[in-house]
């Protein structure tokens, strides 16, 4: 009888630990948090997977503050950047509108798909240049909520490729993300 009781207790503990692991996975897919937009009218929805990685190749969809600057990154597939990534670098976090102005060192953004990259605002387009060249694309990001390390807002971008001059219009962008400070 003791062995049966012991076996039942072990099964209960095992099932409880499995339930906790399942809850952890569900939290990573929490519908309370999102990062979406339309790129030339086609829906872009980030997969919301993230990690506290140090290897840039492993970065997923995330929000963080680094050196006082709020950064938001949404990847359609965190395991494969070739499926698309939207990156917003804003500056000091505040409830306000960030204007991404052409040829200006300030808030910036880019959309990357495979090796193609379209930028807006204060995004340096040819990396490593001794005299930085900023994007001629424009846009705006509006922060409407900032509370308890959660940031929420919207964005619209008119991005331009430095390589070939093509444009990508990113509209109806929305996000709600929990950020960390690194």
Verbal overview:
The structure is a single chain. By secondary structure, the protein is mostly beta strands. It has two domains: 1-30; 32-181, no CATH class. The chain is built from one helix and twelve strands, in the order H-E-E-E-E-E-E-E-E-E-E-E-E. The protein has one helix at residues 2-28; strands at 34-39, 42-45, 62-66, 69-75, 85-91, 97-100, 108-113, 116-121, 138-147, 150-161, 167-178, 180-181. Strands 1, 2, 3, 4, 5, 6, 7, 8, 9, 10, 11 and 12 form a twelve-stranded mixed sheet that branches. Strand 7 (108-113) and strand 8 (116-121) form a beta hairpin.
Low-confidence region ranges: 1-27
Portion of residues within helices: 10-25%
Q: What is the number of E strands?
A: 12
Shape, principal axes of CA atoms? globular
Write the H/E string, N to C: HEEEEEEEEEEEE
- Summarize the main sheet: 12 strands, mixed
What is the end-to-end distance?
Answer: 54 Å
Structural class: mainly beta
Mean pLDDT: 81
Round the Cα radius of gyration to an integer and report it: 20 Å
Protein name: Lipocalin-like domain-containing protein
Organism: Pseudopedobacter beijingensis
């Amino acid at each position: 009888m003791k062995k049966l009781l012991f076996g039942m207790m072990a099964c209960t503990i095992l099932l409880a630990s499995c339930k906790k692991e399942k809850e952890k996975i569900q939290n990573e897919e929490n519908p309370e948090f999102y990062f979406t937009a339309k790129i030339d009218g086609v829906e872009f929805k980030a997969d919301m997977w993230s990690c506290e990685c140090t290897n840039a190749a492993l970065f997923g969809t995330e929000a963080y503050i680094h050196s006082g600057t709020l950064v938001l990154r949404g990847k359609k597939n965190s395991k494969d950047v070739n499926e698309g990534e939207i990156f917003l670098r804003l500056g000091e976090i505040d409830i306000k509108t960030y204007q991404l102005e052409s040829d200006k060192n300030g808030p910036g953004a880019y959309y990357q798909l495979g090796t193609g990259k379209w930028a807006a605002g204060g995004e340096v387009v040819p990396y490593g240049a001794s005299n930085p060249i900023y994007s001629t694309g424009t846009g705006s990001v509006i922060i409407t909520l900032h509370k308890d390390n959660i940031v929420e807002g919207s964005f619209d971008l008119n991005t331009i490729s430095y390589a070939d001059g093509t444009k990508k219009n990113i509209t109806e962008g929305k996000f709600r993300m929990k950020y960390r400070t690194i």
